[in-house]
Specification:
The protein has 210 residues and is α/β, with parallel strands linked by helices. The chain contains 8 helices and 5 strands. 31% of the residues are buried. It binds thymidine-5'-phosphate.
Length: 210
């Protein structure tokens, strides 16, 4: 897609598991929606055919080779970009996306692929206008998953590999990445999110936030 076709904004929420990014995405969605902005919320893995296969993979990651795992995330993204993201950007919508290609670089990077090579294999996908990278110590995220969500850890959420994932996330250097300290209260993290959104809108064709 040429830049001239793109009228909307792509805002992605990234970070290790349990950083609260999905809660923050929902809070932002509610505010933008109530203020009348043309906003949509989506996530990766998607609920499409590849996304469903990926959810199978969570349960037993060992059934898939590393290359198959990476290919599934790329196929899911390709479908997401073609069917939803590019058309919505062209219509001038604001997309809030829970995880995107930085997650592939970090999570599949943690199983041995070179993160920059992964990013180049994502060149079909539009760059985000803003990637909010939520950061907490990994053990805080894991405690949140277990106690708040009442969940057990899946194959992606083991402590040692999440440390590696967090390290790769922090090492990726792109102008659109803004890190957010997500150890504080939901409200304080939300204020940090709103600060970045206000700056983004002020530099876009959308009405300023107030
Ligand atoms: P979530 O739905 O809780 O965010 O979980 C999605 C899991 O999938 C999470 O552990 C990260 C992982 N994942 C990857 O490994 N690669 C990717 O490209 C994406 C989008 C997610």
């Amino acid at each position: 897609m040429g830049d001239n076709d793109k009228k909307g904004l792509l805002i992605v929420f990234e970070g290790t598991d349990g950083t609260g990014k999905s809660t923050q995405l929902q809070l932002l969605y509610n505010i933008l929606h109530d203020k009348g902005y043309p906003v949509i919320a989506t996530r990766e893995p998607t609920d499409g055919k590849y996304g469903r296969k990926i959810r199978e993979l969570y349960i037993n990651r060992k059934n898939y080779s590393h290359e198959e795992e990476l290919e599934l995330f790329l196929a899911d993204r390709r479908e997401h970009v073609d069917k939803l993201l590019n058309p919505a950007l062209k219509r001038g919508e604001i997309i809030l996306c829970d995880r995107y290609f930085l997650s592939t670089a970090a999570y599949q990077g943690a199983i041995g692929f070179d993160p920059e090579t992964i990013l180049s294999r994502n060149s079909f996908a539009p760059d985000p206008d803003l990637a909010l990278l939520f950061q907490t110590p990994v053990n805080v995220g894991i405690t949140r998953i277990i106690s708040d969500r009442g969940d057990t850890l899946n194959d992606f959420e083991q402590n040692e590999s999440l440390e590696k994932v967090a390290e790769i996330f922090s090492g990726i250097d792109r102008p659109y990445i803004k890190t957010i300290d997500a150890t504080g209260s939901i409200e304080s993290v939300h204020q940090a999110v709103m600060g970045h959104i206000a700056t983004l809108f002020a530099n876009s064709s959308f009405l300023p936030l107030n």
